[in-house]
Amino acid sequence: MAPTGNGPESELAAAIAAASRHGIDRRGFLRLAGVAGGAVAGGSVLAACGVGAQKKAAPSGSALRKAAAGYWSDKKKTGHVNWAQWPLYIDVSDSNKSDHPSVDQFEKATGIKVKYYEVIQDDPSFFAKVQPSLQSGQYTGYDLAVITNGIYFDKLRELGYLLPLDQSRLTNFKKYAGDSYRHTSYDPGNVYSVPWQSGITGIAYDASKVSKPITSYFDLWDPSLKGKVGMFADNQDLPNAALVAMFGDPQKTGPAQWRKAADKLKQQRDKGIVRKYYEQGYIDAISKGDIWASQAWSGDVFQALASGAKHLKFVIPKEGGVLWTDNMVLLKGAKNPVDAMMLMDFYYQPKIAAEVAEWVNYITPVPSARQVVLSDARAAKGSDRASLQQLANSPLVFPSQQDYAELHNYRTLTNAEEQTWNSIFQPIYQS
Description:
Blueprint: H1 8-22, H2 26-37, H3 45-48, H4 61-72, E1 80-85, H5 101-110, E2 113-118, H6 123-136, E3 144-148, H7 151-158, H8 171-176, E4 193-206, E5 229-232, H9 237-247, H10 255-270, E6 274-278, H11 282-288, E7 293-297, H12 298-306, E8 312-315, E9 321-330, H13 337-346, H14 350-360, H15 369-379, H16 382-392, H17 401-405, E10 407-408, H18 415-430
Parallel strand pairs: 1-2, 1-3, 5-6, 5-7, 9-10
Antiparallel strand pairs: 3-9, 4-7, 4-8, 4-9
Helix pairs in contact: 9-10, 10-18, 14-15, 15-16
C-alpha cells in the first residue's frame, strides 16, 4: 500500500519530536536547524528485526548482470514514482515550501507524477520501517529511497533488498558524474546506487582559541586542548576517521587495526581531552567557546561561515578525511522502477544538479554544476550574487580533485563484521 504522508510540515514536526527524544543524524538535524534559523546550516537494527540469519552470499559480477537483464526485460514506464527522502533535502519554491521546482520540471518533461515523501529521519529508523515489507517480499510503498553509504546501505545490499540498476538508463550519470562517484568502495560499478549528495568529515576549530593551526587528526590529542575537544558519538565517523589517520583506506583494515584505533580513541577520552561526544550541536559549542576544536561535517561549517562565523576554520587532516554519500537506490518490490530510474538520471543534468546544490549546500556529484552556479551568480544581484559566488567557490561544496584524493569512504561491513565493529567502537562514546 502506498504511504500516506501528510507533507513536509507533518514530517518536520515528527523529526523535531524525534530529535527531542534521542537526537537525530546530521542531515536531519541540519535541515531542522535551517528551518528554525532561516538558513540551511547526521546496536544493530538488523539483529533487532530478527533477520541476521538471512545473510546472503554476494553474487558475482556476471550473475548480477544476468539478474539485472532478466529483471529489466519486461519493465515499462507507469507514469508514477514514489520517492522516500530526508526532510528539506531538495530545492523548494520561494512561494510554497512544499513545492519543489526540480520535481515539477521532471514531471513536465516526462509526464511522470512524483509523490515525494520526507519520511527518512535517519537510516536506522527507515530501515526498521521498510524491513518487514522487504523481508516478506511486499512493496514498501516507495520505489526510490536515499540511503547513506555505511552500515544500513551494506545491510540492504547484503540482504538482497536493493534492485540492480538498469545501466542503459543512466546516460546523464555516465556523462556528468564526477570520477569519485563512479568508483566507490561500497558499490563498485554503481550496481545498486548513484549518489544524491555528499559531505566531508574533517575538523573544525576556532582559530582565535587554539595556539597553532590544526593540520593533523592527532592535533585533537594535544594536551593543551584538554577538555576543549569534541568528537562524534557514532559508530561510523568516529572510528572511520581514526582508521584513515592511522592506516589509510579503511577498506584495507580488519579487527586488529580496529582495536588499535579504539585504543587510540580511548587514550584521548581517558586523558580528559574530549569534552563531549556529539550527535549534534558541536558548531554551537565552538561558537560559545565550550570547545575549541571538533570533528566536523563540511555542510555544518559551510553554513556557519555563510552565516558570518569569523574565526571558524575547516580542515581535511593531512592524514586524510572521510567522504560520506547519500545514495539514490531502488528498493526491492518497486512497482515503478523505470520511472524511478528516469528520475535518478534526471538529477545528473548540470542545471538540475545546480538547483539542488544552491538550496541544500551539500557536495553535488556533478562537478559541472559549478559553472551553472557561477552563471546564476552573474545574473543575480546583491546578497544573492554574493551567496552564489561563495557557494561556487567553496571547496566544502565543490571539492577539488586534490581534496577528493585525500578522502576515503566508510569501511564496508558484512553483518558478521558489524557485530565485531560495534563491540569495539560503541563503548568508547557510550561509556
